[in-house]
Amino acid sequence: MSQAEQKTSIAKPDTTVELYEIQRTIHPRAVHGWFANWRVALVLITQLVFYGTLWLDWNGRQAVLFDLASRKFYIFGLVFWPQDFIFLTTLLVISALTLFLFTAVAGRLWCGYACPQTVYTEIFMWIEHHIEGDRTARLRLDAQPANARKIGLKTAKHAIWIALSLWTGFTFVGYFSSVRELFTEAVHVHLGPWETFWVLFYGFTTYGNAGWMREQVCKYMCPYARFQSVMFDLDTLIITYDAKRGEPRSPRARGTDTRAAGIGDCVNCGLCVQVCPTGIDIRDGLQYECIGCAACIDGCNQVMDRFGYPHGLIRYTTDNAVHGVYPDRHILKHVMRPRTLVYAGVLLSIIAAFIVMLFLRVPLKIDVIRDRASLARETEDGRIENVYQLRVMNTEERPHRFFILLKESDLLHRAELITEPQPLEARPSSSMIVTVRLKAESDHVHHGSVPVEFVIEASDDEQHPLPELFVIRERSSFYIP
After folding, report:
1. What is the pLDDT of residue 16?
2. Does residue 293 sit in the same domain as residue 378?
3. 305-334 burial string, b = 16+ CB within 10 Å, else e?
4. pTM
5. Rounded Cα–Cα distance for residues 384 and 440 (Å)
6. What domain range is 287 assigned to?
7. Which of 22, 69, 176, 478 is deepest in the core (most CB within 10 A)?
8. How far is C-alpha 317 from the geometric centre of its chain's CA atoms?
9. Residue 391 domain-assigned (yes or no)
10. What residues in the chain have per-residue pLDDT under 70?
11. Domains in the chain, number
């Protein structure tokens, strides 16, 4: 090594480069404005629905109850059984298409206003703000050494967080187990092991995600943040910083002539960063961490008001509008573009089909099961007899009367259907098994399996009429030795 190289190595000692950034705590600043009011309204609406719906009564039962033990889902006046899986599938498809449509039109509206992670993080931050103070007070409190005041404030905050989390877990379990029975058991400390586990599990999840992890869930755990870009295009409304208007950034006194000073409207106050729940700088462009809450828009508009500048330095706009492809006043015209029209058309078609399916839904469901213990037997009068079991499910919360008939067939001679005295009655939201015997002549018929068709017709009285479409046909087979 030369003398010069030795001097250089002495002058520049080795440095340590950290591969992982130490995670800093984000303390968002409170902000007021149009979008903040929307967030507050949606938090209140979603929580009123979540915490309040399960306490409503309907037909003498809990209005919304997903009774897994009985395999029945009660949603107000509707009762769904496992055989109604098609309705759940349709609802999931509708939800997915709705998400695609809203994302294509205006970005991550779901994330910013209605996602449970966003909603509960917002609630937890309200509690934190009320107990520990505003952003400056919280930063000062975190920097202080441990003392009685700090321990007291932190303990009070976490106690309320834990209580709210446990109540959230209890409410969630209440949708799957009768909430009134669950509440009575909880008061008398008689909760079952599974109810206890799930209350604690969902309580812990709420406390951990909304109280501790917060923006980390959105940035690193939520898959939607990763694939949202495939649903964006140049005409999607996104939260954007107008660099042409805002640059170059510079602090200034109120009343400064920006043109004369050669500066942009951005005063470089950093308020847009301080109010962001994920801690990003929207002035660096659209980032996957942005959840679309629009807090930066409200914060920037407050600063613009103080300096007498027009709103909109940070605003909802499209990439094409920012780059001058068309003016802002034409943004709404580009909302109705082929992509969104296809989403909307498919979505409306599925919703219409879903409503029609619900309207035409037959309240009785029939399953025909052959008696496999004895495929066929010969009776005393020389005829062949097959035995069937008909499982009848009444999906409505009122009784239904019905007849079981046999469709005429040229392959069965002198066919006779024997069952219980008819009409039969299916009790509300219950299932019953009806044993049916079918006899037919053994002469002039094909041997082996012969197709048969059972017909179930409604026979309700005039006070509870059913539509003429209420005729169920179920096929089976008649075995001839």
Report:
1. 63
2. no
3. eeeebeebbbbbbbbbbbeeeeeeeebeeb
4. 0.83
5. 5
6. 233-330
7. 478
8. 27
9. yes
10. 1-23, 410-413, 442-446, 460-469
11. 2
pLDDT reported for residue 19:
55
Query: Is residue 354 in a domain?
Result: no
Residue 343 CA to residue 350 CA, distance in Å, equals 11
- The secondary element (H helix, E strand) that includes residue 194 is helix 193-206
DSSP state of 217: I
With H, G, I as helix, E, B as strand and everything else as coil, classify residue 405.
Answer: strand
Beta carbons of 293 and 113 less than 8 angstroms apart: yes
Do 294 and 391 lie in a common domain? no
H/E run at residue 477? strand 471-480
Token readout for 243 is 């660099």
| Amino acid present at 93 | V
Same domain (yes/no): 415, 459: yes
Do residues 321 and 379 share a domain? no
How far is 456 from 282, CA to CA, in rounded Å? Answer: 64
Assess whether 312 and 396 both reside in one domain: no
How much is the pLDDT for 8?
47
Same domain, 320 and 252: yes
Same domain as 476, residue 369: yes
Element containing residue 5 per DSSP (H, E): helix 3-11
pLDDT value of residue 466: 47
Provide the token pair at 292. Answer: 């679309």
**3-state class (DSSP) for residue 335:** coil
List, as one string, the DSSP characters of 63-121. Answer: SEEEETTTTEEEETTEEE-GGGHHHHHHHHHHHHHHHHHHHHHHSSHIIIII-HHHHHH
CA atoms lying within 13 Å on the CB side of residue 356? 6
| Helix 116-132 × helix 148-174 angle, to 10° | 150
Contact 366, 83 (CB under 8 A): no
Considering the domain architecture, whether residues 388 and 289 belong to the same structural domain is answered as: no
> Does residue 40 fall inside a structural domain?
no
Q: What is the DSSP letter of 56?
A: -
Contact 337, 104 (CB under 8 A): no
List Cβ neighbours of 157 (8 Å cut-off, separation of 6 or more): 127, 128, 131, 132
* Residue that finishes a domain, picked among 330, 350, 380: 330
Per-position DSSP letters for 350-361, written without gaps between them: HHHHHHHHHHT-
243-287 confidence digits (pLDDT tens): 999 999 999 998 888 888 899 999 999 999 999 999 999 999 888
* CATH (domain of 369): 2.60.40.10
Question: What are the Cα distances from residue 128, in Å, to 47, 157, 176, 211, 287?
Answer: 18, 6, 31, 9, 27
